[in-house]
Design goal:
single chain; 382 residues; alpha+beta; 3-stranded antiparallel sheet; 12 helices; 6 strands; elongated; SKP1/BTB/POZ_sf; BTB domain-containing protein
Amino acid sequence: MRPTKIAKPDPDGDLTLNVAPRENEPCSFRVCSATLRRNSPVWKAMLFGPSWMESKPADGENWVVELPEDPAYPMEIILDIIHGRLEGVPQTLGLKDLRDLLVLTNKYDMTGLVRPWCAQWIKAARRPILDTDDILRSLFIAWELGDEYLFALRLEDIALRTKVDDKGRFNYTASVPTEKIRSFSDLDESDDHYITFEPSEKDAILEDEDHVGPQDALDIISSIRETLLTNLVTPIHEELDSRIRSDSYYCRSTKSPASSVCDAVVIGQIHRNMLQVRGSTLPRSVSDINDSVVELASWLFSLMSAIPTLHTEADNRRALECHPRRKFSKLNKKIHESIPALVASSINPSHKEYMAKQRVKTGLVMATEQDRSKLRRYWTLW
């Protein structure tokens, strides 16, 4: 049974909205139908269009509209704003409430009404450290408010930390900070620090998330992930193939009698580590790899930095060319530094156009490069 006490953004209103329960209690709002019509083209069509079940009853009965999927608190904020009850509008919002509110403003085509508050509300979404749920919420928030920089940062984190579970679903786990490290660029003399992370306890199945941004969000995430996995997998197989098939050895030592077997040592160590750590050799096709980009890169570059050869520091320096460390050290930094550009290129013109239109509605000023979160070190660079 509906409660006798109804929240009244307009005590003299002619319409009652029954929304989703609040704390397991039924929730209703008395509102002015004309106010809803003026502020939302969707409500205008629903309430005053022909043949809509939500239209005003012709028999004079009480006008009640059922909106069972609309959460109560975000709806209350929207109704307070459009009815001029601004004292009830909060200065800060949790990311769940903000995400839910923006779902409603999108649904009813009225995103512009958040303009006076969005710069304050989005601050929580821009925090560099968030849990799994809030990372996903902030992706949608960035999309709806038009913050292209934040949208790219969240896409990046999700794409790099998403793995495939045993049912073929995308499983995303955010991360928690472990330590701060000076910039990985030897030429960078600034005080910037880069944060290393470890997985948090909470994960999320991306296919089960209802609101993550554009309809092709999972396709974008998949594309970024596959590109980076390819960039990781291809060089290791090229390294193995070249050592197996080449008639001339990588090793050029003239002092070590065992130099001719250096390639075999490297090949054997790589395969041995694959079997010990992964339980199988590394697939050539990225569609057969379930690891996240961070997991695969962390394992791969750690392996290649520690591969032993038959040479010592006292050997001819040319002999050390047989070691894959130098090549993979350069590759390590190259792939890591390529990530922002790859993510930016994955945001296509239609995405940019949508977010630009949202910024016109909300008046949001995007973060500058200096305001963005510090670049994060997703895996060890050496």
